[in-house]
Amino acid sequence: HLYLFCLEENLRLKVEYNNKTYLYHLLTTVVTLWIFLFRLYSGRTMFVQTQDTPNPNSLKFLPGRIVLEEGTMNFAGPREAYCSPLARQLFRIDGVKSVFLGPDFITITKSDANMEWKVIKPDVFAAIMDFFTSGLPVVNEDTPSDEDDEVVAMIKELLDTRIRPTVQEDGGDVVYRGFEDGVVKLKLQGSCTSCPSSIVTLKNGIQNMLQFYVPEVESVEQVKDDEDEEAAQV
To answer: GO terms for CC (predicted)?
Structure first.
């Protein structure tokens, strides 16, 4: 009887152990699948596809998500991409001649017909995936209007690409307010508003950079809204 009891107990423990092992593997599989789906739908995993076009120098990239809510936008060169962080990022890739944005696709045209797409595609894939996981807008809300001339467009491009990122690192921001008679009008926001060195930053930093790239700029002037004036008086 003791032998049978020990045998039954041994079998029971084996069954219990096997059940726990099965449950452990099942739970591990479920958790792994859940993590994969979370990354997939949270935007951390992207599957960018390509599609040929009638032009061998142009290739269509499909990120699997909306690019533009409506319409299309064409950027023939980097100077025209001041309003689109996505286009600016793509123009940083060597060999990219133009960028065309559609509802759910991005068409890249290469500058050299002899350059093979396998050289450019990895950088384009990386740029598209990095951009869509960054949370940046495809087109800035404060975009230049069609009436903006080339000088104003260059000023806004420099502000968005070179000046604002640096100022934002310090907890502030710079907003374009106008350009008249050689004077660029800017509004300082955030930590820059009450910073004692804001005027120095405005003149020595921003003004010098704008004058270097845009000869038409004679000076930079800080403008304040009514709310800023009232806050300064309190």
So the answer is: mitochondrion
Phi and psi, residue 80, nearest 5°: -90, -5
Long-range (24+ apart) CB contacts under 8 A made by 122-127 are 123/93, 123/94, 124/61, 124/90, 124/93, 124/96, 125/48, 125/61, 127/89, 127/90, 127/92, 127/93
CATH of 150-233 given 3.20.20.70, 3.50.50.60, 1.20.1560.10, 3.30.300.130: 3.30.300.130
Least Cα distance to 180 among 149, 142, 144, 213 occurs for 149
Topology of domain 49-134, per CATH?
Ribosomal Protein S8; Chain: A, domain 1 (3.30.1370)
Q: Structure tokens of 107?
A: 């068409």
Instruction: Please write the tens of the pLDDT for every residue from 29-82.
Output: 555 555 555 555 554 457 889 998 888 889 999 999 899 888 888 888 887 787
Query: Phi and psi (nearest 5°) for 75?
Result: -120, 110
Number of Cβ within 10 Å of residue 233's Cβ equals 6
Judge residue 110's burial from the number of C-beta atoms within 10 Å of its C-beta, 0-12 exposed, 13-18 middle, 19 or more buried. Answer: buried
Asked whether the beta carbons of 216 and 180 are under 8 A apart, the reply is: no
DSSP H or E segment with residue 13: helix 2-41
